[in-house]
Amino acid sequence: MLLIKEKIATNITKMAKQLGVTKGAISQTLSKLESKGVLTKSIDPYKKNEITLTFTRYGKDVFDNYSKHAKVLYKKHERYLKKFTKDEKEVIQRYLIGVESVFDDIG
C-alpha cells in the first residue's frame, strides 16, 4: 500500500523486485485489494507492463487508519529501544541479521 500511496512503482516487475517477492504475489495481492474495494487498477494501453493504481475512498480510509496506528506503534517501539544499552542493541542486531539470513537461505 505504501508503494501505491507514494506512487513508487507502476510496474508489477518493479514492485516485486522492490519488495523481494514474486510477480505472482504482487498480482494476487493487487487482485485481492481490488476485489475488496481498496483500490482500482488499470493497464496503460500504450505500455502493457505499466499499471495505474488508485485508492478508492475506502482504500484511502484504510491507509489513513494504518498510518495513524503505525505512528503510535513506531513511537512506542522507539521508547522501548531506548531502554537498551548500545551493546545490547548490537547483540539484538546480530541476532536479527542471523535470523534474516536463515530465511534468505530458505528461499
SSE pattern:
HHHEEHH
Instruction: Give the end-to-end Cα distance, rounded to a whole number of Å.
Output: 24 Å
What count of helical segments does DSSP give?
5
Fold-level CATH name of the largest domain: Arc Repressor Mutant, subunit A
Domains (count): 2
Name of the CATH superfamily of the largest domain: Winged helix-like DNA-binding domain superfamily/Winged helix DNA-binding domain
- Spatial order of the strands forming the largest sheet: 1-2
The main pleated sheet reads as:
2 strands, antiparallel
Structure description:
- With 107 residues, this protein is mainly alpha-helical.
- It has 2 domains: 1-55, Winged helix-like DNA-binding domain superfamily/Winged helix DNA-binding domain (Arc Repressor Mutant, subunit A, Orthogonal Bundle); 57-107.
- The chain is built from 5 helices and 2 strands.
- Strands 1-2 form a two-stranded antiparallel sheet.
- The two termini are 24 Å apart.
Summarize the structure.
This protein has 107 residues and is mostly helical.
Based on the model shown, name its key terms.
107 residues, mainly alpha, Arc Repressor Mutant, subunit A, 2 domains, two-stranded antiparallel sheet, 2 strands, 9% strand, flat
SSE order and pairing:
Elements lengths: L1 H4 L6 H8 L3 H13 L3 E5 L7 E5 L1 H25 L4 H21 L1
Antiparallel strand pairs: 1-2
Helix pairs in contact: 2-3
